[in-house]
Amino acid sequence: MRQIAEPQRLRALCEEQRAQHRRVGLVPTMGFLHEGHLSLVRRARGLADFVVVTIFVNPTQFSPSEDLDRYPNDLIGDLAKLEAVGADCVFVPTRDAIYPAGFSSHVMVEGLTDVLCGASRGPGHFQGVCTVVTKLLNMVGPCSAVFGEKDYQQLRVIQRMAQDLDLPVEVVGAPTVREPDGLALSSRNAYLSPDQRQAATCLYRALQAVRARIERGGGTLSAAEAIGLAREIIEAAPEARIDYVDVRHAHTLEPLETVVVGQTVLALAVFVGRTRLIDNLTL
Amino acid sequence: MRQIAEPQRLRALCEEQRAQHRRVGLVPTMGFLHEGHLSLVRRARGLADFVVVTIFVNPTQFSPSEDLDRYPNDLIGDLAKLEAVGADCVFVPTRDAIYPAGFSSHVMVEGLTDVLCGASRGPGHFQGVCTVVTKLLNMVGPCSAVFGEKDYQQLRVIQRMAQDLDLPVEVVGAPTVREPDGLALSSRNAYLSPDQRQAATCLYRALQAVRARIERGGGTLSAAEAIGLAREIIEAAPEARIDYVDVRHAHTLEPLETVVVGQTVLALAVFVGRTRLIDNLTL
């Protein structure tokens, strides 16, 4: 597995692959890799001949009040996991290599980014995501780029951006990987105390309760009832504080009055202690 | 010469070229082509094996008060000129093909776009330019893209954007082509009455007067003196109304107190009647 820090070397290596008609795949990450990330690499492995994983904690997608400075990292562990799962190249740039002095360009998606995490984390969050993903796509030139469905809105925003800007890439979503008790894998789970870890199952339990209610109701449920049920379960968990619980159209993220089976996403963001966790379920 | 209207066909054709290791060149235009545009195509011809010229009057870079609806066009004439000058492909998309329903992504460059035409045409102008150029670059995948130096700020903004976003392209500037009396070629010159056409030489005369004053002064001149001299000449021309006359650093576009030979651009925007003309000179 090649380990690269310089953007120019990454670009040259990927150009070489493409010149040999090898399909390049990309998995952008912020490191501290878990089984969720590795499932993305395996997915990319099935789509491409040469899989590039990037590890970069992108400062521009964090607001000043967020956890940029304490975001967990374990580069040695990450490299071993990527080697084991069959990545061909890992790109670990410095901040200065990604944002050199004078950097002043941005990519943004309107509309889709006004709600959910865009509303709660601020307008800079998805602008930061879109800009860094555009840069990585342009450096690597992949046929496919794989993102986790746990970051549901991020996936939709990047798909919209790729379509709008004619980026020559297929943006692929891969299913959320969960702990045995349902908690979605996340690097931020490392912040949780044992009691908080226990409480954090409230997100998954809320999603499942809404699903069960819909099944019992023969497929119909109002958005208000779905939100109310989810809130009730989350609010009963110790140390849990709701950031948002929302029912949205699965593609446009527009608000819905009623759950439309197959076209609806139930999206949650919950602080457990100081740790912000997200999860979602397509109903 | 291939004539293409659909983005997907353009992308497929350019991919085919690249797969055969042919270098692709791009010249984006808004049509109503003159010798200035054709000089860009010739320049691209020297840099690439397959030259794509695009003709698209991009609505998002016009403010509501500008001349989008009366922008001149002559597609039949343009095609003949491009054929004659050796373009390989011309792409003439509809507005809906470039901006389909639901389009909501944008690319922008901060700082560089706050001054000169960015200040006078409004913040949407360069955002519109950056977004459409990003799309065209992503569709075509060129090694080089050629832009005229007459649109000096546009060239600098696009170079900045390409560098910041790691676009895999060389953004090349080509010199302004002029009428025998010095007027810079522009599609908008077609708007001028014979008297206005005469008056429009004031832009070039102002640039040359400043250059002559610097040469006489042994290379030194304050920005205020340069601006004053240029304004005097332009204000003496009938029907001429200054939009801006400015002395800026040639790369950062930051304001300068003194002309620094080799690092200074004198940039002009002047309304002659209702027609807005721009010109510049690197001092």
Question: Could you walk me through the main structural features you see in this protein, from its secondary elements to its overall organization?
Answer:
Two copies of one chain form a homodimer. Chain A has 283 residues and is of the alpha/beta class. Chain A has two domains: 2-174, Rossmann fold, CATH 3.40.50.620; 187-278, Pantoate-beta-alanine ligase, C-terminal domain (Pantoate--beta-alanine Ligase, Chain: A,domain 2, 2-Layer Sandwich). Chain A contains ten helices and ten strands. The first copy, chain A, has helices at 7-19, 35-47, 75-85, 95-98, 116-121, 123-140, 152-164, 194-199, 202-216, 223-235; strands spanning 2-4, 24-29, 50-55, 89-91, 105-109, 144-148, 170-174, 240-249, 264-272, 275-282. In chain A, helix 6 (123-140) packs across helix 7 and helix 9 (202-216) packs antiparallel against helix 10. The A-B interface holds A 7, 11, 15, 19, 21, 102-112, 130-131, 134-135, 138-139, 141, 160-161, 164-168, 252 and B 7, 11, 19, 21, 102-112, 130-131, 134-135, 138-139, 141, 160-161, 164-168, 252. Strand 5 of chain A pairs antiparallel with strand 5 of chain B, so a sheet runs across the interface.
Keywords:
10 helices; homodimer; 10 strands; 283 residues; alpha/beta; 6-stranded parallel beta sheet; 3-stranded antiparallel beta sheet; globular; 2 domains
Map the helices and strands.
The structure is a homodimer of 283-residue chains.
Chain A: E1 2-4, H1 7-19, E2 24-29, H2 35-47, E3 50-55, H3 75-85, E4 89-91, H4 95-98, E5 105-109, H5 116-121, H6 123-140, E6 144-148, H7 152-164, E7 170-174, H8 194-199, H9 202-216, H10 223-235, E8 240-249, E9 264-272, E10 275-282
Parallel strand pairs in A: 1-4, 2-3, 2-6, 3-4, 6-7
Antiparallel strand pairs in A: 8-9, 9-10
